[in-house]
Amino acid sequence: MSVANEAELDELLSTPRAETVEALRDCPGDIVVLGAGGKMGPTLARMAGRAAAQVGDGRRVYAVSRFSSPEVARTLGGAGIETISCDLLDRDAVARLPDAANVIFMAGQKFGTAAAPAQTWAMNTIVPAICADRYRGARIVGFSTGNVYPLTAVSAGGARESDPVGPVGEYASSALGRERVLEFYSARNRTPVAIIRLNYAIDLRYGVLADIGLRVWQEEPVPIAMGHVNVIWQGDACRITIESLARATTPPFVVNVTGTEILAVRDIAQEFATVFGKSVRFQGKERRDALLSNTDRMRSSFSPPEVSVQTMIEWIADWIRADGPMLGKPTHFEERAGKF
After folding, report:
1. How far apart are CA 21 and CA 5, in angstroms?
2. Mean pLDDT by 10 residues, the chain (340 residues)
3. Is the pTM above the cut of 0.90?
4. 245 contacts 55 by C-beta, under 8 angstroms
5. CA distance 129 to 236
């Protein structure tokens, strides 16, 4: 199987599973997705809308973003999602957003941090404070990142949620700040919260596998200093995120969300080279540590991801060979100093 076009891809990405529908059945009320205009937000909003339709209780799903791309808003509207343009740094604008019992907080900034660190800190700490206070009576699932952990030995199997955090660089530090803000408002207002430490979601148009596949296809060297990674299909990450509404607690439920395998960048590149019939060149030298997350808690709390690494590689290879559209947003997975 291959994915023919973006419409088919978006349909595939936004398909809920039975567990997603049941989680929403256990969490009645409208849903607000804050920061829904990014790479992952439209998929999650559409999935929430499709799952809500299967529940059939008439709830509404709102997608909130500045929507710098009007096409994203139009597409979501066509899928039955109510879109609202809003600057989440504007307290008055946030106060006017519709009430909802369920909130998924996706807003944040990563790339551009090195050039504008103050903007990143504002987006990653002030915005969650405004939104957590506004939706103090809701369940909140907030996005974080595996970057809050230090690099860990590959042999250790990845950082666990109970391990000490150790963010490297301003982006990772501000992301930890976002977690602490959500934790504070959870305790202050008794707001049930779940925190998703994501690392890394992919689809065919962006992500670690696409980054590596494109380098092999274009016969560019593949950097391997960050020699190992975790990846998860974006649809699987969205399913687990929505299902986390039912696990929101105070203090927050924290879970690493990523693929269950630790993958060697070298092996991924070799696999693409085999599929493409090309040779591959490597740049740098593998280190013994990497940005990796342990998934024991995720596996004990949710059904396993449905899309395998092999399937992702095959789909991405077909997409690249067919000159499918790309988002042009590299992950910089090779970054070891936390500079984005």
Report:
1. 26
2. 92 98 98 96 98 98 94 94 98 98 96 91 98 98 98 97 96 98 98 97 97 98 97 98 98 98 98 97 96 98 97 97 94 90
3. yes
4. no
5. 28
What's domain 6-204+231-259+292-306's architecture? 3-Layer(aba) Sandwich (3.40)
The owner of tokens 């399913």 is: 239
CB within 8 Å of 170: residues ≥ 6 apart: 113, 114, 117, 120, 121, 338
- Token pair 């670690």 is found at 208
Name the one residue in this structure whose structure tokens are 């803000």.
181
Pairing state between β 152-153 and 289-290: antiparallel
Check residue 29 and give its pLDDT: 98
What would the 3-class secondary structure string for the chain be?
A: CCCCCHHHHHHHHCCCCHHHHHHHHCCCCCEEEECCCCCCHHHHHHHHHHHHHHHCCCCCEEEEECCCCHHHHHHHHHCCCEEEECCCCCHHHHHCCCCCCEEEECCCCCCCCCCCHHHHHHHHHHHHHHHHHHCCCCEEEEEEEHHHCCCEEHHHCCECCCCCCCCCCHHHHHHHHHHHHHHHHHHHHCCCEEEEEECCEECCCCCHHHHHHHHHHCCCCEECCCCEECCEEHHHHHHHHHHHHHHCECCCEEEEECCCCCEEHHHHHHHHHHHHCCCCCEECCCCCEECCECCHHHHHHCCCCCCCHHHHHHHHHHHHHCCCCCCCCCCCCCCCCCCC
- Where does residue 225 rank: exposed (0-12), middle (13-18), buried (19+ CB within 10 A)? middle
Pairing type for strands 31-34 and 102-105 reads parallel
pLDDT of residue 112: 86
pLDDT of residue 68: 86
The confidence score (pLDDT) of residue 339 equals 87
Give the domain ranges of the chain. Answer: 6-204+231-259+292-306
Q: 104-127 burial by CB neighbour count: b if 16+ within 10 A, else e?
A: bbbbbbbeebeeebeebbebbbbb
